[in-house]
From TrEMBL:
Residue span, UmuC domain: 2-188
GO molecular function, a single term: DNA-directed DNA polymerase activity
Gene3D superfamilies, per database record: 3.30.70.270, 3.40.1170.60, 5' to 3' exonuclease, C-terminal subdomain
Organism: Psychrosphaera saromensis
Sorted UniProt keywords: DNA damage, DNA repair, SOS mutagenesis, SOS response
InterPro entries: DNA/RNA_pol_sf (IPR043502), DNA_pol_Y-fam_little_finger (IPR017961), DNA_polymerase-Y (IPR050116), DUF4113 (IPR025188), PolY_HhH_motif (IPR024728), Rev_trsase/Diguanyl_cyclase (IPR043128), UmuC (IPR001126)
GO biological process, one term: SOS response
GO CC list: cytosol
Keyword DNA repair: yes
Pfam families per the UniProt record, alphabetical: DUF4113, IMS, IMS_C, IMS_HHH
Name of the featured protein: DNA polymerase V subunit UmuC
């Protein structure tokens, strides 16, 4: 048996954990630079607040309905996610964290122990609520895809009260008949339109198709999805997460950047982020993409990018930042109002099998980088950083509605008065 446990409107629910005054109020969370609505609480959903709509278009509507608006508090969300996953992991013998708010569970030796999966699902929900104050939905299924479908029913279909179980053909058909085909895990909107043209409108319609025929029409992914809907396990997660083949760090600015030092500060910060991610997966990069551009909606759109090749692969943040210094004079242009900048490490190699150059001395200092990472892990992100990062903060992300970072900053720890 498999299960999928995920939080209900995770970002919005996380905002309510340490602020009981807004627990029954509608809440929306905005994307980077307070651009669009990315999360909507159940209360706000009843007001038909659309997701991914620009905030400036919805501002008056949200004010009229007394909706709480919050900027994305990534530090808080990451910490609450870790706590939630730790609680969920106690209820199974194999856990796979699929995203920041979703976790697959596998119960290899539990079938003979658990008599009532519905009751067990409620136990999971209650434990998560008691220890994190996050509402979750739980879906059980005989395959990962069916557990995902059951989770959809638990959260969005009437009569399931947060827990749904698919353990036979009857329970599967009952739920799949109420789901659109695009609600099936792995079936996107574009594929859904093609399936609709074949008169496949619901998940149950998809289940009834011939897997081999659908593979010829589409792909092996569709074939496996149909087999999973019929109770045959085809999809599994890797025991070891594969390292990324490319690592990028990009961000739009909170305010337009017109100063070369501000642009350098931003790119240096991206170098630190990419360097840290490279070291975390024991990789090095041979090439670095460095780019910056103005807004495509402004006149005289400006965009420049450079490909910098290292003589020796590196994961040293200082070496990455030196590459930025070399291309910055060609990247920056007076009069341009820069809207976004970033870097990308491509052509990655394993640190273990990195081939050194006999005639080119390396500038990498792995001991120094290990010390930097260790200190920042103990004392907090940014305790030690590149000097070029500290020149200015005017380019940082705009977060005018940011809530306190209750669990990651000493100054923001909740205070209780008795």
């Amino acid at each position: 048996m498999f299960a999928l446990v995920d939080a209900v409107a995770f970002y919005a629910s996380a905002e309510k954990v340490f602020d009981p005054s807004i627990r029954k109020r509608p809440v929306v969370v905005l994307t980077n630079n307070d651009g669009c609505v990315c999360a909507v609480s159940p209360e706000a959903r009843k007001l038909n607040v659309p997701k991914f709509e620009p905030y400036f278009k919805l501002r008056k509507f949200l004010e009229q309905h007394n909706v709480v608006v919050r900027s994305s508090n990534y530090e808080l969300y990451a910490d609450l996610s870790t706590r939630m996953m730790n609680v969920i992991g106690r209820f199974c013998d194999n856990q796979y964290i699929y995203s920041i708010d979703e976790s697959f569970l596998q119960f290899t030796g539990f079938k003979s122990i658990i008599d009532d999966w519905h009751a067990y699902g409620q136990d999971i929900r209650l434990a998560v609520w008691r220890e994190t104050k996050l509402p979750v939905g739980v879906g059980f299924g005989t395959t990962p895809t069916l557990s995902k479908a059951a989770n959809h029913a638990a959260k969005k279909l009437e009569g399931y009260n947060g827990v749904a179980v698919i353990d036979d053909d009857y329970s599967a058909n009952e739920i799949l008949a109420k789901m659109e085909v695009t609600d099936v895990w792995g079936i996107g909107g574009r594929l859904g339109k093609k399936l609709n043209m074949m008169r496949i409108y619901t998940a149950l319609d998809l289940k009834k198709q011939n897997p081999k025929y659908m593979r010829k029409q589409f792909s092996v992914v569709v074939e496996r999805t149909i087999e999973e809907l019929n109770g045959q396990v085809c999809i599994s997660w890797d025991d070891v997460k594969q390292p990324k083949q490319e690592i990028f760090s990009t961000r739009s600015f909170g305010e337009r950047v017109t100063d070369v030092h501000d642009l350098k500060s931003s790119l240096s910060t991206h170098c630190s982020i990419v360097g840290k991610k490279l070291r975390e997966q024991s990789s090095m990069t041979k090439q670095l993409i460095i780019f910056a551009h103005s807004s495509p909606h402004e006149d005289n759109f400006y965009k420049r990018s450079f490909l910098y090749e290292f003589p020796v692969p590196t994961s040293d943040s200082r070496v990455l930042a030196n590459a930025v210094n070399e291309v910055l004079p060609q990247l920056f242009h007076n009069g341009v109002r820069f809207y976004k900048a970033g870097i990308g490490a491509i052509e990655l190699v394993s640190e273990q099998f990195m081939q050194a150059d006999l005639f080119t001395p390396t500038l990498n200092n792995s001991k120094l980088m290990n010390s930097l990472d260790s200190i920042n892990k103990v004392f907090g992100k940014g305790t030690i950083r590149l000097a070029s990062e500290q020149q200015t903060k005017s380019w940082e992300m705009k977060r005018d509605f940011l809530s306190p970072r209750y669990t990651t900053r000493w100054s923001d720890i909740p205070k209780i008065q008795c």
